[in-house]
Amino acid sequence: MTINELYQRFSQAKEWQRLACVMRSRVSDIILKPHGETDADTLTRDRLTEWLTESRRHETDTVPVASVSNHMMTWAG
């Protein structure tokens, strides 16, 4: 499963639908467009931090994306 597919499933989970919808464009710009085809099993918090840093986006974008991504990773197990 890719990160794109994982985010799609995460966004369909009732408890995360609203958050995933609100954050979709930021997550897409920072994570999904450049890294979405990456195998979801390889996503780690260190790798996520690396991608957020590489994005060169302001903390007002990267901090919420990190939070959503961490929720998604926890939800996925």
Low-confidence stretches: none
Instruction: Give the radius of gyration.
Output: 11 Å
β-strand number: 0
Distance between the termini: 14 Å
Structure report:
The chain is an all-alpha fold. 74% of the residues lie in helices and 0% in strands. It is built from 4 helices and no strands. The mean pLDDT is 96.
Helix and strand layout, with pairings?
Blueprint: H1 3-12, H2 17-35, H3 45-54, H4 59-76
Describe what is shown at a glance:
With 77 residues, the protein is mainly α. It is built from four helices and no strands. It is globular and about 30 Å long.
Give keywords.
77 residues, mainly alpha, 0% strand
